[in-house]
């Protein structure tokens, strides 16, 4: 039965259902503390006095018993530190608002190095892990006058006796224990109506103790000569950066197993930890620290490269599958592959000429390392052993994702691929549910035994005939890999053209690729985990794959990759080169390329350009910006082609519909962005009776909308803003020509 809230505070008019709740609330105004201890301390509630007496004036046995009894509302239990899986049935109250952290198996044994005895990443057994809560320390700081501003005190919960090793000064520890009863500064969580509920602790799953931080730092001692001025991050900084890596990066790049990341042992490869922290710092917008961590990682990697021990020697290379038992050194090799992959990703998207050149250096190193460690597996024999499966699946995903990223570099910067699809003889990744399962029972419940190889799935897409492939059980990452395979094939086919500036493929090649892309689309649609829910970060790869599908349709007819010079990292150069690209040839065969391009703008227009740019950029991978750059150029040049030829070749019914749709989408996009809304009067209505003027205006407007969106976007990666600046500069280059054309007789 729900009690009516008939009792009202005379000061602030807040209502309460119980008199004792009103009485307790009133003391926040009167500052009354009626419960006094013999030591002179006073409290607003009797339970706080009782707890104070037992903790400070009772026997040691009573204090121990009190800690055991009060665990539900005081010290957090280990299981309270485990975040609920996004796939579980946990209530919304189990996870702080806005958190998308993947689950963690706190007590799972090591999976990456069964022979190692020292954990370098967040051991769940550390006693102080349950006490490091910054919000709780901040609560005490706000409520306690005269407390010394010592960080150890601000970050430790309740009884400091549990972690004496973190306090170097014994007298300070004694002073704090005598002067401050931290347990009295936070209301008891067992009380249902708490006046200070907004100051209760917020879970921070990646906090580490000082001893764990020192372990991480000690692992860098052998490389001290390479890092003379490097400052290792603090405990709170490590927690922030790990959160940034998990929340922002891992959804788009799922090759490191987040549920068991705490147990990953890499004391022999501390550069992997630095690389993870560098990516995380980038997602926390701490760019100077991110650069520092990146350069430290790079120094270690290059030192190993010079000494010839970055990767496994070729004499150890074998054709064994990923499922077979690996020695401890083999795990180090895979960690170094992961490190180099993270370095390549970091350097590629900085929009900086020097770092872009460094990313190209890593390309050859990464390809060599992948070939050395092996890209073939004969069977999938991990069975029901969860830890073995995680190790195999992590290695498999790392290799496949590294191949995808090398392919993405070729797409972004128009460079030949370092690894060909025919070199891959591996199984495609597992389902999301298997990959995200936080423990072995949940993993067994979602286990899928049947697997598909990359070559088998890719061959199905390339097969001739009218029949569609059977219903798919592929994961989003599997479909993502397969669309990359088709894009690489399109690129290589274009390179065989005798005309180096040819925009379109031969008719037979076009027909074959159109059929392959339609087969891929069928596979994507029938995959059970494909979706476009932008509120679900685990749909990221499925969403990204559709953008790549659209670009694949565009590139069959119009290859802008060679015309954008993105590696220059200069907006004027990119825009000037893009302006020189020839327009596509009009025709009904462009329908899929046009539809995908307009859809790419329609989605942010429906969400709202301003809202997407400021609030939802984490839901969009960098690949969306790269694809949208191509979509913007394609639509703009197609509209210009229509404008230039509409007198001699009137618009078809299909072209009329596309132009009308572009007009509606552009208008909606401009309305959703304040800085662009003033363009609406100049845009005017879509007038098909005057298609020349209409298409000219739209050719400028589509570029301008995308430019405004990416310039306002709060993406942590500078290349997104570079895309926006380049499109802005491109719109400035074409605007005078459009104005001149509209005034000519």
From TrEMBL:
Keyword Transcription: no
Keyword Chloroplast: no
PROSITE patterns noted in UniProt: ZINC_FINGER_C2H2_1, ZINC_FINGER_C2H2_2
Ranges where the record places region Disordered: 56-106
Short name of one Pfam family: zf-C2H2
Main location: nucleus
Record-level GO cellular component terms: chromatin; nucleus
InterPro entries tied to this protein: VerF-like (IPR051059), Znf_C2H2_sf (IPR036236), Znf_C2H2_type (IPR013087)
Listed GO biological process terms: DNA-templated transcription
Cellular location(s): Nucleus
Bias (Basic and acidic residues) ranges: 56-67
Residue span, C2H2-type domain: 7-34, 35-62
Keywords: Metal-binding, Nucleus, Repeat, Zinc, Zinc-finger
SMART domains: ZnF_C2H2
Gene Ontology MF, one: DNA-binding transcription factor activity, RNA polymerase II-specific
Skewed-composition ranges (Low complexity): 85-99
Classification via PANTHER family: C2H2-TYPE DOMAIN-CONTAINING PROTEIN (PTHR40626:SF10), MIP31509P (PTHR40626)
Name listed for the protein in its UniProt record: C2H2-type domain-containing protein
Taxonomic source organism: Penicillium salamii
């Amino acid at each position: 039965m729900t009690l009516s809230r008939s009792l009202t505070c005379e000061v602030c008019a807040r209502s309460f259902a119980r008199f004792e709740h009103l009485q307790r609330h009133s003391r926040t105004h009167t500052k009354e503390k009626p419960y006094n201890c013999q030591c002179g301390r006073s409290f607003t509630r009797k339970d706080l006095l009782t707890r104070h007496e037992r903790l400070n004036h009772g026997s040691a046995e009573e204090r121990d018993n009190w800690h055991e009894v009060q665990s539900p509302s005081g010290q957090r239990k280990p299981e309270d530190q485990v975040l609920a899986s996004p796939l579980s049935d946990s209530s919304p109250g189990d996870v702080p608002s806005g958190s998308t952290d993947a689950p963690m198996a706190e007590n799972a044994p090591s999976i990456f190095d069964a022979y190692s005895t020292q954990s370098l990443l967040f051991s769940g057994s550390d006693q102080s892990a349950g006490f490091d809560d910054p919000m709780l320390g901040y609560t005490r700081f706000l409520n306690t006058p005269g407390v010394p501003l010592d960080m150890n005190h601000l970050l430790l919960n309740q009884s400091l006796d549990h972690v004496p090793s973190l306090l170097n000064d014994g007298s300070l520890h004694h002073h704090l224990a005598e002067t401050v009863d931290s347990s009295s500064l936070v209301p008891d969580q067992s009380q249902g109506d708490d006046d200070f509920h907004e100051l209760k602790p917020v879970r921070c799953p990646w906090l580490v103790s000082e001893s764990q931080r020192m372990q991480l730092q000690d692992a860098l001692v052998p490389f001290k000569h390479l890092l003379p001025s490097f400052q290792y991050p603090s405990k709170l900084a490590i927690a922030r950066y790990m959160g940034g890596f998990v929340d922002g990066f891992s959804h788009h790049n799922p090759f490191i197993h987040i549920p068991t990341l705490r147990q990953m042992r890499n004391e022999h490869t501390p550069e992997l930890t630095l690389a993870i922290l560098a990516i995380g710092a980038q997602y926390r917008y701490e760019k100077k620290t991110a650069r520092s961590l990146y350069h430290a990682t790079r120094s270690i990697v290059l030192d190993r490269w010079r000494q010839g021990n970055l990767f496994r020697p070729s004499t150890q290379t074998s054709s064994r599958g990923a499922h077979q038992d690996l020695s401890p050194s083999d795990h180090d090799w895979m960690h170094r592959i992961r490190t180099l992959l993270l370095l390549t990703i970091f350097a590629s998207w900085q929009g900086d000429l020097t770092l872009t050149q460094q990313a190209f250096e890593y390309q050859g190193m990464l390809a060599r390392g992948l070939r050395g460690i092996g890209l073939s597996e004969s069977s999938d024999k991990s069975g029901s052993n969860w830890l073995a499966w995680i190790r195999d699946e992590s290695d498999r995903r790392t290799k496949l994702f590294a191949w995808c990223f090398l392919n993405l570099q070729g797409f972004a910067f128009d460079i030949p691929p370092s690894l060909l699809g025919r070199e891959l003889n591996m199984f495609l990744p597992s389902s999301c549910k298997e990959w995200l399962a936080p423990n072995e029972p949940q993993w067994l419940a979602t286990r899928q035994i049947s697997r598909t190889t990359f070559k088998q799935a890719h061959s199905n897409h390339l097969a001739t005939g009218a029949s569609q492939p059977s219903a798919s059980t592929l994961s989003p990452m599997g479909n993502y890999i397969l669309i990359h395979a088709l894009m690489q094939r399109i690129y290589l086919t274009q390179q065989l053209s005798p005309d180096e500036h040819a925009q379109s493929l031969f008719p037979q090649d076009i027909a074959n690729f159109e059929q392959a892309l339609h087969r891929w689309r069928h596979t994507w649609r029938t995959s059970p985990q494909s979706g476009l829910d932008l509120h679900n970060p685990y749909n990221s790869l499925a969403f990204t794959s559709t953008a790549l599908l659209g670009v694949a349709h565009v590139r069959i007819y119009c290859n802008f990759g060679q015309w954008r010079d993105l590696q220059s990292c200069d907006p004027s150069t990119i825009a000037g080169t893009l302006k020189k690209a020839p327009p596509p040839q009009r025709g009904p065969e462009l329908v899929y390329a046009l539809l995908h391009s307009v859809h790419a703008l329609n989605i942010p227009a429906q969400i709202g350009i301003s809202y997407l740019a400021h609030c939802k950029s984490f839901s969009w991978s960098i690949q969306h910006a790269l694809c949208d750059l191509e979509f913007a150029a394609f639509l703009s040049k197609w509209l210009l082609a229509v404008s230039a030829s509409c007198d001699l070749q009137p618009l078809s019914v299909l072209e009329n519909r596309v132009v009308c749709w572009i007009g509606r989408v552009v208008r909606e996009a401009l309305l959703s962005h304040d800085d662009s809304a003033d363009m609406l009067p100049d845009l005017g209505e879509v007038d098909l009776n005057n298609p020349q003027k209409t298409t000219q205006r739209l050719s400028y407007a589509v570029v301008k909308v995308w430019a405004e969106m990416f310039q306002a976007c709060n993406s942590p990666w500078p290349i997104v803003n570079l895309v926006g600046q380049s499109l802005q500069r491109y719109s400035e280059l074409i605007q005078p020509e459009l104005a001149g054309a509209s005034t000519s007789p």
